[in-house]
């Protein structure tokens, strides 16, 4: 073997040796440029109080909550806002009062049902309201509220227009919406309560009060006799929604669906009679 061939063989062997050494000691990683910061570790912009649910930021995620002072004329309207929105949409021809709305339950695509707009309101069907919102169109809803002087929050904050969550409305403005758009065809819905407030209609005039507050100039509803409805099998919330307009003397034991009740169904409830609901977990 001549000298030239020996040099060539030496360089080939040296190259192979260096390649093995590089793989053995991960030398290539030392020369790869990597991103050295985590975008999730950046501090949140000042003035924001919203964090993505479930994000691991080293502390509990903060979710925007509307802060309304106790003595403020503004309230979070909850489902009270839905009635004038639906009434106006029917008047404008965006939906039909007797038309059927196709409703798909979130998380269960196999569960599909049909309901009229009026029945969705009466049952306080939140899945139905979501479907109604899609049919009416969010732009139409927001244009209606803007025209009536209701300012919605910035899109970066979480809110639900149709169910009245995440924003506030002056009580006088909300009452005016009812007087302007809600016709006599909706009278069977009242009193309509949701959250901490309810809408009542008396002598053709709407008023918004705290839920369960007795009407002025009339005997408190809790002092009026009524027949106890059959609440068995209902959720505690649904049972409370049925009882709250009639009496505030309610006690609850347990949770889940109603398994037992006192007084019994169809018994007459008078004056200061205590209504007691027993959940599945506390069945007598």
Task: Provide structural commentary.
- With 284 residues, the protein is an alpha+beta fold.
- It is 27% helix and 16% strand.
- The strands form five sheets. It has a three-stranded antiparallel sheet with strand order 5-6-7, with helices on one face. Strands 9-12-10 form a three-stranded mixed sheet, with helices on one face.
- Strand 5 and strand 6 form a beta hairpin.
- The longest helix is centred in the first third of the chain and has 22 residues.
- It starts with a helix and ends in a 5-residue tail after the last strand.
- About 18% of the residues have low confidence.
The number of helical segments is 7
What's the count of strands?
12
Low-confidence stretches at least 5 residues in length (pLDDT < 50)? 28-71, 217-223
Query: Helix/strand-derived class?
Result: alpha+beta
Our estimate of the beta-strand percent is 15-25%
Helix content: 25-40%
Written as H for each helix and E for each strand, in order along the chain, the element string is HEHEEHHHEHEEEEHEEEE
The description of the largest β-sheet is:
3 strands, antiparallel
**Spatial order of the strands forming the largest sheet:** 5-6-7
Distance between the termini: 103 Å
From the spread of the alpha carbons, the general shape counts as: elongated
């Amino acid at each position: 073997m001549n000298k030239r061939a020996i040099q060539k063989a030496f360089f080939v062997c040296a190259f192979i040796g260096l390649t093995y050494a590089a793989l053995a000691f991960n030398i290539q990683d030392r020369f790869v440029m990597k991103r050295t910061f985590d975008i999730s570790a950046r501090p949140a912009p000042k003035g924001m109080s919203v964090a993505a649910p479930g994000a691991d930021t080293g502390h509990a995620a903060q979710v925007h909550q509307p802060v309304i002072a106790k003595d403020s004329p503004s309230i979070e309207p909850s489902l009270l806002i839905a009635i004038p929105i639906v009434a106006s949409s029917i008047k404008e021809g965006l939906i039909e009062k007797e038309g059927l709305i196709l409703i798909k339950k979130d998380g269960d695509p196999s569960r599909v049902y049909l309901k009229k707009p009026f029945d969705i309101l009466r049952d306080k069907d939140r899945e139905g309201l979501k479907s109604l919102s899609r049919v009416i169109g969010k732009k139409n809803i927001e244009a209606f509220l803007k025209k009536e002087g209701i300012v919605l929050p910035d899109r970066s904050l979480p809110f639900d227009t149709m169910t009245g969550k995440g924003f506030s409305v002056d009580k006088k403005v909300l009452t005016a919406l009812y007087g302007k758009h809600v016709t006599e065809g909706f009278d069977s819905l009242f009193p309509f309560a949701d959250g901490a407030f309810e809408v009542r209609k008396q002598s053709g005039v709407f008023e918004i009060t705290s839920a369960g507050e007795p009407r002025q100039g009339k005997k408190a509803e809790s002092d009026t006799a009524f027949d106890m409805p059959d609440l068995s099998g209902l959720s505690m919330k649904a049972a409370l929604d049925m009882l709250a307009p009639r009496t505030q003397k309610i006690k609850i034991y347990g949770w889940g669906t109603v398994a037992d009740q006192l007084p019994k169904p169809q018994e007459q409830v008078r004056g200061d009679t205590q209504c007691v609901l027993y959940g599945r977990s506390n069945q007598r």
